[in-house]
Specification:
The structure holds two protein chains of two kinds. Chain A has 23 helices and no strands. Chain A is mostly helical.
């Protein structure tokens, strides 16, 4: 009992410290992880087995960690090294693309393709945001998209806030469509052994369907706000040229090629047997080789703090798992729902969504995975159904508030720095209903399609 | 004006710090920046200043804000940082000015041409000044005083290592109630002249 209480205290303390932002979040999770290992596993449980299971290092040295033909990847517990390696690889690739000017080039090319007309631009940027976020982290997508939106808004004389909010929402929705789109999905996929194809054929379909409603919703909300009251747009020659966005032509071609290779490897990984850990490592390796002398610069820009944050987080959640707390939580959900799968799906979608609107969805998803795994032992409860419910809830719920997801924070920050601060009132007035719409669609789709 | 001069004025609400700043700006014939800094920023960015003003010199709401990789959703924090950057740019461009609040004593601490001052006051004098200036009762004035000083303190202490009003963070800390606003300005001007050999 004391062990369980201590594990919960460390977990709650970690959450509170992350929220206060007094200490950097990677330091918080690492210290809490250290406390879990020494106090919970060491002093209370005297269990070297729990430490070994949570550190989960042995798995890295097995062939199945890198290559698992004919089967889904092995489900993992404790530190999810596959997630960490994959995210690190994608970070290096994205850094290479950004350095060459890929994202700015893409934004300006698209703007030019729609002839700098506000409404077509608004729809095109929403779609691009969703598509890019399927493969690239939403922070990078929004960082570039919002910056170009602000720039074009100044030239086309429209308020950039509606467009940035729509882009944020679509980035979060696009991220829910694939295994690599949003960190919770990578964690769900690697922890429960699902492939890219599993995600795209389930959450991808839900996200695609939702996208139709979302584009329509934002169009109806913002069409008037996006129309300029005065016709004093900049002259066509004043608009930025796509070619000017490319800072390094060779780097641009190489990084675009690597991006295509990454997409192909991800889409086919269930067929090739290459795991996401392998893909992450491979993509990082070819990006660094192609960078040549600049490889060290790329490595230095690697967001190691996020990777350390993940490591600490997985250890703390491992503490809850090893002490049986998460099984108790699963029992509770099982009892509340009375074993009714409809109710269980509704609980997971809405609890995940509401929680993700206020707290970081990554620790939440990591905590929920052992819970849904445990719930799936109830007869008639399919793990896949719960996994898609968790993914949609955590990925989409974060859009509801300005603090719910990383893309929201970055997007609102870019807007504010350009002189367009977005308060909670304005943000939630439009984004909260959109979130509810997608969560209702997700719940109904899962109910009628899978149960 | 040949030599660059930046005067940063921190102040308690009701201490007359703003008036001291106005007098110094006139004395040295340099611009005064307070919330008019936002007007300049708004003009530069071609945005409505009222959208920025409501977040000026206000503390970040910890419950409703979050940071990711150096980006924050807090409008208050973003507006503050825009102003800090703008001030640094002005200082880099060699401009002389008087700046009221905005954590300037720390934001511009690397500039040798800066003199940082904190103006405080005795409570009865501050209450009297606030009552007269805003046409409110002494008890309302006390409420305004407490609220504004608390806001300034929280705002300042979030962005700065040094604490708001702590004399160790300023070159001069002067109680304006003792010698009056004008003489306080005289005293600061005399200090600046002594320090830089500048003609008054």
């Amino acid at each position: 009992m004391t062990t369980q209480i201590l594990a919960v205290v460390i977990f709650v303390l970690m959450f509170l410290l992350i929220m206060t932002e007094k200490i950097e979040r990677h330091i918080v999770t690492l210290l809490c992880g250290l406390a879990t290992v020494t106090v919970v596993f060491g002093i209370c449980m005297h269990s070297a087995k729990a430490v070994i299971a949570t550190l989960n290092l042995r798995g890295i040295f097995t062939t199945a960690f890198w290559y698992a033909p004919g089967a889904s990847e092995e489900a993992s517990v404790g530190i999810n090294w596959a997630t960490i390696i994959f995210i690190a690889g994608m970070m290096i690739m994205v850094e290479g693309m950004a350095k060459a000017g890929f994202f700015r080039w893409l934004c300006i090319t698209l703007a030019k393709a729609v002839r700098y007309k506000t409404i077509p631009l608004f729809i095109a940027f929403m779609l691009m945001s969703a598509v890019l976020a399927m493969f690239i982290d939403s922070i990078t997508v929004i960082l570039f998209l919002a910056a170009v939106t602000v720039e074009l808004a100044g030239m086309l004389r429209f308020d950039p806030v509606p467009m940035i909010m729509s882009e944020i929402f679509c980035a979060n929705l696009g991220g829910s469509a694939t295994m690599c789109g949003d960190p919770p999905n990578i964690i769900v996929g690697t922890s429960l052994g699902y492939s890219f194809a599993d995600f795209i054929t389930h959450t991808g379909v839900i996200a695609g369907l939702s996208m139709i409603f979302v584009v329509l919703y934002f169009f109806l909300c913002f069409r008037k706000q996006l129309t300029s009251p005065v016709d004093d747009k900049a002259a066509p020659e004043a608009f930025p040229s796509p070619s000017e966005a490319i800072t390094d032509k060779r780097g641009f071609i190489v990084s675009s090629g690597i991006f295509i290779i990454a997409i192909v490897l991800l889409v086919t990984h269930a067929m090739t047997g290459l795991t996401v850990a392998f893909i992450g490592l491979f993509i990082a390796a070819i990006t660094l080789i192609a960078a040549g002398r600049d490889a060290l610069k790329l490595l230095k820009k690697l967001d190691y703090k996020t990777l350390l944050f993940f490591i600490g987080l997985f250890v703390v959640v491992g503490g809850l798992e090893q002490t049986g707390i998460l099984e108790l939580a699963a029992d509770f959900i099982g009892r509340v729902s009375g074993g009714n799968i409809y109710l269980m799906v509704a609980i997971i979608v809405w609890v995940s969504g509401i929680a993700s609107a206020f707290v970081d969805n990554i620790p939440f998803a990591a905590t929920m995975i052992p819970i849904i795994r445990s719930l799936a032992t109830i007869p008639g409860v399919n793990l896949e159904v719960l996994a898609w419910s968790l993914s949609m809830g955590t990925d989409v719920g974060g859009s509801a508030t300005p603090i719910g997801a990383s893309a929201n924070v970055v997007g609102t920050s870019v807007a504010a720095k350009a002189g367009h601060p977005i308060g909670w009132g304005r943000y939630c007035r439009y984004m909260f209903p959109a979130t509810v719409i997608v969560m209702v669609i997700s719940m109904l789709f899962i109910w009628f399609q899978y149960i | 004006m040949d030599q660059q001069l930046i005067i940063s004025i921190g102040r308690e609400f009701g201490s007359g710090g703003h008036e001291v700043a106005e007098l110094l700006a006139r004395r040295f014939d340099i611009p005064l920046y307070d919330n008019n800094l936002l007007h300049e920023i708004a003009t530069h960015k071609n945005v409505n200043v009222n959208n920025l003003k409501k977040y000026d010199e206000r503390p970040r709401n910890f419950l409703f804000s979050r940071s990711v990789q150096g980006y924050s959703n807090s409008p208050e924090e973003n507006i503050a940082r825009i102003q800090f950057d703008y001030l640094r740019r002005k200082a880099d461009d060699g401009e002389s000015f008087v700046i009221v609040g905005r954590c300037a004593e720390e934001i511009l601490s690397g500039y040798g041409c800066m003199v940082s001052v904190f103006i405080l006051g005795d409570l009865p004098k501050k209450l009297e000044r606030v009552s007269q200036k805003y046409g409110v009762t002494p008890s309302e004035a006390r409420g305004m005083l407490l609220l504004n000083d608390k806001k300034r303190k929280v705002y300042h202490n979030y962005y700065c290592k040094g604490k708001w009003g702590d004399s160790r963070n300023y070159e001069l800390s002067i109680n304006s109630s003792r010698i009056g606003v004008e003489k306080t300005a005289d005293l600061i001007a005399a200090y600046i002249s002594e320090k830089y050999g500048r003609e008054l």
